[in-house]
Amino acid sequence: MMKDKKLSSPAMEVGELEEANRARTAETLLRVVPIVFCLAALVLMIKNSETNDFGDVSYSNLGGFKYLVYANGLCAAFSLLSAFFTARSGPLPSMRRAWTFFFFDQVLTYAILAAGAVAAEILYLAYHGDDKMTWSEACDSFGGLCHKATASVGVTFGSVACYAALSLLSSYRLFSTFDPPTSGGSKGGIEVAAFPS
């Protein structure tokens, strides 16, 4: 159910309609930008391999880097799909679409953040090693791999910033446009459990 009665009426004022269309265009652009970041990070990581006297190493040898590739691919696909639906929708979202975008924006924000954090931890260990675990620095031997992975992680955090903005936007749109769901059993009052003293 809409909070604002004038937004729910079929005849919106011209100014409100123009403002809603500008907001939809801005949201569509904001949903397109992460595609660029995600694809750039994905391509950088997929082409990341190095061969030298110490051996062969590739991004696929490390689970965290593979997760980064998968998360960036998933986020790019969702961004493309959500930008398409945002561009083609009306000025006001339906409740179903608002909840769907809210849910997936939240999930993918955390997924891409986790992928970036895991890959950053691997890079930290590759650059600095861990004396307690007797792991030596790998970037001394495989510097090219580390530099490309660092660039990929940096670009991934650019997409994290975009998804954080999208999460805030979808949260604001959902909770400012629609009333919270009500339970069918209560008659308008708040039910409080009574505990014996």
What does this structure look like?
The protein contains five helices and two strands. By secondary structure, it is mainly α. Strands 1-2 form a two-stranded antiparallel sheet. Helix 2 packs antiparallel against helix 3, helix 2 runs antiparallel to helix 5 and helix 3 runs antiparallel to helix 4.
Keywords for this entry:
197 residues, mainly alpha, two-stranded antiparallel ribbon, 5 helices, 67% helix, 4% strand
Quick summary of this structure?
This protein is mainly alpha-helical and 197 residues long. The protein has five helices and two strands, in the order ααββααα.
Structural class: mainly alpha
Distance between the termini: 40 Å
- The number of helical runs is 5
Helix content: 55-70%
Average pLDDT reading:
80
Describe the secondary structure blueprint for this structure.
Blueprint: H1 5-8, H2 14-46, E1 49-52, E2 55-58, H3 63-88, H4 95-128, H5 143-177
Antiparallel strand pairs: 1-2
